[in-house]
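Observation: inputs received (chain + magnesium ion).
Thought: call the complex predictor directly.
Action: predict_structure
Action Input:
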Amino acid sequence: GPPVSIVSAIGNAARSGVLMKGGEHLERAGKIDLVAFDKTGTLTKGESTVADVEGFGVVDDEVLSLAATAEKKSEHHLADAIVDTARERPTAATDGGATVAQADNTDASLQSISDPDDFDVVAGKGVIAHTDGHEVVVGNRALLDDRDIDVPSRIADYVREREERGETVVHVIRDGDIIGAIALRDELREAAPGVVAALQDAGIETVMLTGDNERTAAAVAEEVGIDDYRAELLPEDKQSTIEELQTDGHVVAMVGDGINDAPSLATADVGIAMGAAGTDTAIETADMALMADDLERIPYAVKLSKATRWNVL
Ligand code: ADP
Ligand code: MG
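Observation:
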């Protein structure tokens, strides 16, 4: 049939939960043949929880509390999960010399986490902090490599095993020694596999982009059924990946939620932001926003982009 008019497209879209902002690049929208998805917060809920804490030569609790202090000033979703879990541990109270665990879950029993003396973010890798005269590093393999820290095989085995389940593992290092690891899980959004399948049925390629490590990315990609994935991307790498896909001849829609995603949302032929979970920067940069983070609207948004004669704008 004939292309629907811009005005009715925008109206229909809004009634269907997609906010369209228009924009001069959208004339390519009709030719979208690939949708790139950010992983964390887009295909997944972006609400990590601590699945396991493992001390190597120290008790698990010490690993968790040291990591929480180092992460206290970080706004990363992994940091939030670590700090929340450390706060919710049973309070260790002393009673006549014996340590007694109080398991009541009232707010008053929440542990206080000490502030670090200083704290630095290493983008896409982790954090470095000082507390109590110790340097504490919490981060991924790349951060350990940068600092020439060797990973004993027992720890590498633990990390591999958790990553193969789709979990993200951060190492905890005190004064240059690995004292433990924390495995975190971030559930898929329920709609994600169905949305990917619907796009594939419509002949559209799907790719997942993530800063997370290769093994975790592979496990999540398989769970969601996506065609391809690119892992261990720094924020600027996500944008250059979109450019490469375009150079290869693809017309690309990008779906993302984070500040990290703003450059790639801007570079994509059509940028689609998660409207509720999305950061302001992502929403401002995108061409469309999903009003209720409803991924199920994506195939519709792509179909609508294709049916709309954008060049009249
Ligand atoms: P994503 O949003 O996909 O998790 P990021 O670029 O934010 O991507 O992070 C990539 C990786 O860097 C994480 O999977 C983690 O290994 C590490 N990382 C980032 N921030 C932190 C942090 N605050 N603490 C520990 N590790 C971190
Ligand atoms: Mg994200």
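Thought: report the result.
Final Answer: The CA atoms of residues 89 and 138 lie 20 Å apart. Confidence is low (pLDDT under 50) at residues 93-100.
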